[in-house]
Amino acid sequence: MTRSTGGVVAVALAGGLVFGLVGCASATPSPSASPSSPTSAPTSAPPTSTPDLSGEFQALEAEFGARVGISAVDTGTGARLSYRADERFGYASTIKALAAAVFLHEVRGSARDEVVTWSAEDVEAAGYSPVTSEQVETGLTLSQLAEAAVRRSDNTALNLVLARIGGPAALDAALVSLGDEVTEVVNAEPLLNVIEPGSTDDTTTPAAFTDNLTRLVDGSYLEPADRATLLAWMSGNATGDTLIRAGAPAGWQVADKSGGAGGIRNDIAIIDRPGGDPIVLTILTNTLDPDAEYDDALVAEAASVALAAFEQ
Question: What is the pTM of this model?
Answer without folding.
Answer: 0.85
